[in-house]
Every structure is written in C-alpha cells, then in structure tokens.
Amino acid sequence: MQSEEETIILSSPDAVVHLEYEPKTLPSLQQVAAEYGGGSWTRFVCISDTHCKTFEVPDGDVLLHSGDLTKVGRTVEMKKTMEWIYGLPHKVKIVIAGNHDLPLHREWYEENWKRWAWSMKQDFDSVSEWLTGERAKASGVIYLENEKATFRLAPDRREWYEKLNFDSKWSPEYHNWAFNYQPEEAEG
C-alpha cells in the first residue's frame, strides 16, 4: 500500500491532489486543518462510473459524482446508489448524470428505451426524484443539469461558484447511449 506522500500528484500551499488513494491513508479533515493552519481548506472527493457499486469513500466537504450512477438508469438502481450517497458524510454532494443514466436524458430515452428490451420503461419522475426530491435536498445533493453550483460550507467559509463548472453530462457519441453528441456538434 502506498503512503500518503506517494499518492500526491500535485501540491501547493493551498492545494493537494491525490489521484489514487486508500481512504484510510488520507489525513482526516481535522488533521488537514491543524497541519495547514485552520479550517479554510475544502476537501473535494471526486468519483464517477460507480454503476450501482458502493464502496468506502474518504471523508470530505464536497463529494462530486460525475456520471454513471447506474448501469442503465432503472429506478431500483438509482435508489441503491442515491441511498448510498445520502449516507455519505459530505456536506455537499454534487451529482451529474452520465450516459448510463438513461432515463435522465428524457428526449433520447423516449425514442430509445425499447433498445433495452430486457428492462421495463422507467418513469422519469421516479428516477429523478432520487436526485432532486426532498430527501436528496436534505442530504445535501445538488443535481446539475447544464448549470453551475453555488454553495458555501459555513458562513465563515468561501463561496464556491463559477470555478465549479462540473455541469456537463454530455460526451462524444458512443454506440447511441444517453447524453451523446456527434463530433461536429462539439463546442470549443
């Protein structure tokens, strides 16, 4: 197992980036505050492509789940993943859909759901409720759909806004999955 120092890929006076880590090897939020002079640090924990899998996630201030929460967007899959996310300790949980979260691309899904014949058509409102409903809000979930998040972790902490542009679930076309675009549609 690598030490914390071996997992750091970028370090500056106000940022430390770990690309790979074991949650137990990272210092606690309290240790970071003590080592770097106060509670002004914000720990972002970034995950993606979990496809209904749950696992140990390091403690942090903000969790960013950037796509593919599910295998194919079934309500039961979204429920499993979101119940896991609700239970994580992060105060803010930013969630973005991915190409596997099929029903969330509503227009595409209406035209393509039958391709997934082994699956019954999922109800958009039932699936999206797990991301935008009262329970999601109470758990600190912010579901982004082509928008930016603005939040403050505490009154004396900085406001996070324009620097957080984790808002796009779109990806280049891949076998006609959800949220795909053609190369000629790409914006520079």
Automatic annotation (TrEMBL):
Top-level division of the source organism's lineage? Eukaryota
Q: Give one GO term, molecular function aspect.
A: hydrolase activity
Q: Any idea where the Calcineurin-like phosphoesterase domain is? A: 43-125
**Residue ranges crossing the lipid bilayer per the database entry:** none
Q: What is this protein called?
A: Calcineurin-like phosphoesterase domain-containing protein
Pfam families xref list: Metallophos
The record lists the organism as: Candolleomyces aberdarensis
What SUPFAM superfamilies does its record include?
Metallo-dependent phosphatases
